[in-house]
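=== RUN LOG ===
request id: a7f3
mode: sequence -> structure
chains: 1
length: 494
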Amino acid sequence: MPVGRRPAAAVRRLLLLGSLLLVPVAVALGGAGAALAVPPSTVVVEDTAGVLDRSTLVPAVEAIDFHETTRVAIYTYNGRSEDNLNEDVLRFARSVHPDWISADGQKWADGLFIFALDPVGRHVGTYMGEDRKVTLEQRTDIQDAAKDLLRDAQWTDGTIVGVRRAAALMNQPWYQSAGFLVAAWVSGGLAVLGAGAWLVVRGVTRSASRKEIGRGDRSYASVSMDLDVTELNARTIPESSRYGARVLEKHRTFQNRYTSAAALAGQVHALSGRDLGRRRNLKLAKDYADAAAELDALDDVIADTNALLNRSDSWQAAWDRQLAPFRSDLSGLEQLLAKRHGQGDSATAAALRSFRDHSLRDIERWTAELAGGRTTPETALDRLNDARGRLAVLLENHAETVIAGYAKNDREAALMRKDMEAAQDGLGGRGRTYEPSILGTVYPSYHFFTVATFNSGLNSGVSSVSSARGGGGSTTGYGSSGGSFSGSGSSSGF
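=== RESULT ===
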C-alpha cells in the first residue's frame, strides 16, 4: 500500500470500529424522544453594578436553547469580598422582584433561573426554581464555566457563558447526562474515544507546527533579503556613541544567530507531516519562528540606529519608532487607573497622570529640538531612557497603593507583591518579549516597568489573593436575613 494512503485507511478502520462499538449507545437512545430546544420565555436584566452591555447580553441570552421554557433573570451588584451574595440576591428579590419567589415564600419560583454577579466582591451565584434544580456540583460547574472570563473582567461574556452552561444542565434528558454518556462510552466506545482524541491532538499539533514554521519563514525571508543592507547599516553606526556601541555588540552575534536560524529552518522543513504532529517538533518549530522573528526585529533596530545617530533622511521615522513604546504606556495609563482595584483616585494615580501630561509635552519638545539640530540623537535617547525610568518608579509606587487597597493583611500583600514582581521580571511562564527598539536592545527586558506588565501583575495578584481567601468554595446559605428560605442556589468566588 502506498505510504500516502495509510492515514486514510487508518481512519476508515477507526470509523468501522466506532460503528460497532457505538451500537450500545444507539440502542439506548433508540427509545428516547428528542430533547426540546426552546429559547427563554423572558430575560430580565437588573444590572445595578452597571457592568453589563445589554445590547450584547440580551440577544445572546435570548438565542440560547433551554430544555424547558425558562425565565432568565440576571442580577449584578457591587458588594464586598466578605459579603454573602446569596443573601443579597434574596434581599433584592423580596424588595424588587417578588415574582422571583414562590407563593409560599420559601423557594425560588418555578421555571426561573437567576445568574448573579458581584464584580467588586468577586462572587458569582446561580439560583433556580425547584423544577429547574440541579445538584451542587452542577451549580459549581455553571459558575466555573464563567470564571475565566469574569477574572478578566469580561462581565457580559462571562454571564452569557454561565447562562449557556445552565441551559445545558437544567432539565437535561437522562440520555444526555454525563453519567449515562460516560457509562455508554466506557462500555462501547472507550477505544474509539481514545483513538479519536489521539488523532485530534496530532492534528492540532500538526496545524500549530505549520503555523509556527510559516511565521518563521516570513521573518527569515525578510532577514535574508535585507542581509547586505543590515551589514552596511552596521558598518556605518558610529561606535563613539554609547547606544551605537551597544547595538553593535548585538550585531556581532548577528551572523552566528542567523546561521543558527538557518540550521533550524533546515530541520523544520525536513520534517514530514507525521513528524509535525509530535509535540517535540512543535517546540522545534516555535524555536525557529522565535529566533527568526528576533533577528527580523534586530535588523530593523540596526537600521534605525544608523538612521537616527547619523541623521539620515529617515531619522524621523526611526525616532518615532523609539517613542512608540513610551507613547503606548502613556496612552494606557488611564485605562489602568480606571479599572477595578486600580486605585484611580489615589495620590500615586494623580502623580502618574501628571507625569503623563508632562511627558507628552516633553516628547513634542524633544522632537522639535532634534529637528532643529538643538539637541543630539544621543541626548534625545538619554532623555527618553530617563523618562521611562521615572515612569517605572511611579508605577512601582502605585503598585504599593494598589496592594495596600486590596490586600487585607501582610500575607496577602506579600502574595500580590510577588506576582507583580514576577510579571516585571518575566517569571512564572510569562517571559518578557524583546522590545524592537534601540533602548529595548541596549537594556534587558526587565529594565522598564511597563503598563502592560503592571496589568499582568495586578491580574495575577488579585487572582492569587482571591484563591488564597478560599474564593473557589461554594456558599449555599442565605444568611441571617434569609429566615427559613431554602431555595436551590449557591455562590462562589472567582
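=== NOTES ===
Residues 352 and 389 are 13 Å apart (CA to CA).
The first strand starts at residue 42 and ends at 47.
=== END ===
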